[in-house]
Design goal:
Number of strands: 6
Strand content: 5-15%
Shape: globular
Radius of gyration: 16 Å
């Protein structure tokens, strides 16, 4: 089993090309290496809206597509909304957006709920539950799925 949570922003990377290198090329290189070593399951933290408009979302879609094509027995793709929690790097605008996401999340119901914020610890608990999960195939999980899976971890 292999897990990738690697990702950056265009601003942190310095350019779209550098961001693509991190979010696509490095993740794909890691996945290829894991597959070559016989790993059967790959868990990828991607983004809500992957495949949508904009460079960031197209990049997320590309890495998802390319990982699916590698032939893992099982691929779990996580589509969290805005990740909430402490950041090692100071990101003032992101801190404001996190506060806004926390305030708006209760109002985001139905299909909109996938775009709300989700605590990074909840995503981590869901990943821990997905590790060595039975069954083959490719599955995707949004915020509601991640919360449900994470709560199963807590009830063990």
């Amino acid at each position: 089993m292999a897990i990738s949570c690697l990702g950056t922003t265009i601003r942190a990377a310095g350019s779209q090309a550098a961001m693509f290198r991190v979010d696509h090329d490095y993740v794909l290189a890691f996945a290829r290496g894991a597959h070559a070593l016989g790993v059967r399951q790959f868990i990828l933290v991607s983004s809500v809206g992957a495949g949508g408009p904009g460079f960031y979302l197209r990049t997320k879609d590309a890495v998802e597509r390319d990982i699916r094509a590698l032939g893992f027995s099982r691929v779990d793709i996580l589509h969290p909304g805005m990740l909430l929690g402490h950041r090692a790097q100071a990101r003032p605008m992101e801190a404001i957006c996190q506060r806004l996401a926390m305030a708006l999340s209760p109002l985001m119901v139905g299909r909109l709920s996938r775009y709300g914020g989700i605590d990074a610890k909840t995503v981590a608990k869901a990943i821990a539950r997905l590790v060595r999960q039975a069954g083959d195939g490719c599955r995707t999980y949004d915020n509601a799925d991640l919360r449900r899976i994470a709560s199963q971890t807590a009830s063990r």
